[in-house]
C-alpha cells in the first residue's frame, strides 16, 4: 500500500508562478532564441553592439525601417540600409510577444510584405514588455484595436522556431523556416515590488 501511495501521491506544493516575461524567456530560450533583457535604452544600445560583435565582421543588415527601429537605432542606421535580398541579418520590431509559447508575432508590416523564407536567416527583434500577450488570440484582438480597417496587416506569422537545425520544430511551426533570433526586450512597464 505504501508503494501505491508514493506513486499516486499528489504534489501538495503549489506550482511556482512565473511572471509573463519569465515565462516568455523560458519558452523562447528553450526553442533556441537568444534573449537580452534591458531596463534602459542605453542597455538596448549595448545589447545591440554585443550582438553585432558576436555576428562578426561580414554582416549585411536590412531593416523594416519602422519608426520604433529608426528611433531606437538611429546612430546605427548606416548598418542596416542593405536590401533584404542581399542581407544576412534582419532588424525588426514585432506586433506582440506570445508568452505562453515563447513566440514572436510578426505581420506583413514587419516582414515588408515578403514571405519569411525570403528574409535573412538571422533576425534581431526589438520589443517592449508592454507588447507581451498571453496567447495568439489576445494578440489578434490587439491587432484589431491597433489598426484601422484599411491599414490592417495582410499577413501574420508567429515565429517560434529559433533553432539553426531545420529538422527541429517543423511540425510545431507548420513548416515555417527557422530563424536564428536575438530578442532585445526593453522594460517599459512599472516594475512591481
So, the CATH homologous superfamily?
NagB/RpiA/CoA transferase-like
User: How much β-strand is present in the residues?
Assistant: 15-25%
Based on DSSP secondary structure assignment, what is the total number of beta strands? Answer: 9
The CATH architecture assignment turns out to be 3-Layer(aba) Sandwich
Number of individual domains: 1
Note the overall shape.
globular
| Gyration radius over CA | 19 Å
Strand order of the largest sheet: 1-9-6-3-2
| Cα end-to-end separation | 47 Å
Descriptors:
single chain, Rossmann fold, alpha/beta, four-stranded mixed beta sheet
Structure summarized in a few sentences:
The chain has helices spanning 2-8, 20-30, 41-55, 67-72, 136-146, and strands at residues 34-38, 61-63, 89-92, 96-98, 103-107, 122-128, 132-133, 156-159, 180-186. The protein is an alpha/beta fold. Strand 4 and strand 5 (103-107) form a beta hairpin.
Amino acid at each position: 500500500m505504501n508503494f501505491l501511495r508514493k506513486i499516486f501521491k499528489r504534489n501538495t506544493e503549489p506550482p511556482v508562478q512565473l511572471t509573463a516575461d519569465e515565462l516568455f524567456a523560458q519558452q523562447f530560450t528553450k526553442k533556441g532564441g537568444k534573449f537580452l533583457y534591458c531596463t534602459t535604452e542605453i542597455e538596448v544600445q549595448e545589447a545591440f553592439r554585443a550582438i553585432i560583435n558576436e555576428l562578426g565582421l561580414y554582416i549585411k543588415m536590412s531593416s523594416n525601417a519602422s519608426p520604433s527601429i529608426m528611433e531606437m537605432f538611429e546612430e546605427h542606421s548606416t548598418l542596416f540600409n542593405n536590401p533584404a535580398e542581399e542581407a544576412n541579418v534582419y532588424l525588426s520590431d514585432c506586433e506582440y510577444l506570445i508568452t505562453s509559447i515563447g513566440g514572436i508575432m510578426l505581420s506583413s508590416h514587419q516582414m515588408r510584405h515578403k514571405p519569411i523564407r525570403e528574409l535573412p536567416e538571422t533576425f534581431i527583434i526589438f520589443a517592449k514588455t508592454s507588447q507581451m500577450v498571453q496567447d495568439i488570440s489576445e494578440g489578434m484582438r490587439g491587432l484589431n484595436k491597433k489598426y484601422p480597417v484599411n491599414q490592417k496587416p495582410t499577413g501574420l506569422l508567429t515565429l517560434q522556431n529559433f533553432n539553426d537545425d531545420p529538422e527541429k520544430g517543423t511540425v510545431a511551426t507548420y513548416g515555417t523556416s527557422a530563424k536564428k533570433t536575438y530578442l532585445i526586450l526593453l522594460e517599459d512597464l512599472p516594475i512591481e515590488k
